[in-house]
Amino acid sequence: VEIVFSKVKWYISGTGFYLPPRVVSNEEMSKYMDTTDKWIQERTGIKERRYVDPGVGPSDLAIPATEQALNAAGLTVKDIDFIIFATSTPDYYAPGSGCLLQNKMGFGEIGAVDVRVQCSGFLYGLSIAEQYIRTGMFKHILLIGAEVQSTAMNLTTEGRDTAIIFGDGAGAAIISKTDENRGIMSTHLHTDGRYVKELWLESPSSKSGHPRITGKDLHEGKQYLQMNGKEVFRHAVTRFPEVIWEALDANNLKKDDIHLLIPHQANLRITQTIQKKMGLENNQVISNIHKYGNTTAGTIPIALGEAVEEGKVSKGNILVFASFGSGFSWASAVVKW
Fold first, then answer.
1. 99, 131, 177, 302, 333 from 321: Cα distances, Å
2. At 102, which helix (H) or strand (E)?
3. What is the per-residue pLDDT across 288-320, written as a single tens digit (0 to 9) for each?
């Protein structure tokens, strides 16, 4: 397969990931709501997820993930030119978690920007990093995907459909300039705002007036993520293959060229449907949702970090990343490792 790059090439020079130590099993979830291990596994494929302890935010989870990625890349904090922090659950409403990470890890006075595109956040961040590297502005960019979803869940039967799905975790990647014939070949981004309310968090909202969240909002549960599971599934199993084929076509690749497909870990049934539609083998598709649940912007970098750590990725392999989530937003990227 002939691969054509721009004059400035960029690649993932290091990866890292971190999961909080507290394991929350399906059996534990059944103590909070009317559910069972069998019910959860049949609908989602999830067996357990990770929850943070009180006082831990996504910027805290990002620290060990970043340290691992820097070590893998042979770099230090002094080498990083810019921070991109993808999260839908920032430590605070303001400032962004990227600023907090910059301070906690002693980076220089470099720029730090948060990306809030939920499940597609890491791939949107990857595309942003691409532009900075291609223009020659930066040599090394730290890209984070980190979430603390557990503190946003309604752990009752009423909130069961979303509460059983989400977990906490962080993944990191160092995006670097290279002269080698390798790297991120293309990224592809899409949104369709007609479906905002099919997967959204209504409150707090600047549209609500003063204050941004009221007692009535809290009583009605507007502070919890709302999801129309059937609509999300229907669109996901269409958009995932579309954006994967778009990425393959853009690079003159075929499905057999894919060494690993690393999709956003939303639901095992979605992943299995994608695999079947595309005719991919089991060893071509990464799935770790059974261990961690849906960690939103963290799922792709966590899965990538695990694959690298387990020796499933070798130089020259073609990897495809794909995501779908709130917005609706969906994205893909092709990487020659």
1. 27, 18, 20, 12, 5
2. helix 97-105
3. 999 999 999 999 999 999 999 999 999 999 999
The residue count for the chain: 337
| Contact status, residue 260 vs residue 319, Cβ threshold 8 Å | yes
| Burial category of 316 from C-beta neighbours within 10 Å (exposed 0-12, middle 13-18, buried 19 and up) | exposed
- The confidence band for 7, taking pLDDT boundaries of 50, 70 and 90, is low
**CA dist., res. 277 & res. 152, Å (int):** 33
Cis ω for the linkage preceding 211 (within 30 of 0): yes
Residues marked as catalytic: 119, 264, 294
Q: Read off the pLDDT of residues 39-62 as tens digits, 9 standing for 90 and up.
A: 999 999 999 999 999 999 999 999
| Cα atoms in the Cβ-side hemisphere of radius 13 Å centred on 331 | 25
Q: Where are the beta strands (DSSP E) in the chain?
A: 9-18, 22-25, 48-51, 82-86, 111-115, 140-147, 169-178, 183-191, 199-200, 226-227, 260-263, 318-325, 329-336
pTM above 0.70, yes or no: yes
Nearest residue to 83 (alpha-carbon basis) of 118, 117, 123, 128: 128
What pLDDT was estimated at residue 8?
Answer: 57
270: its two tokens: 């979605």
Residue pair 322/169 in contact by the 8 Å Cβ criterion: no
Q: Is the peptide bond before 107 cis (omega within 30 degrees of 0)?
A: no
- pLDDT tens, 108-162? 999 999 999 999 999 999 999 999 998 889 999 999 999 999 999 999 999 999 9
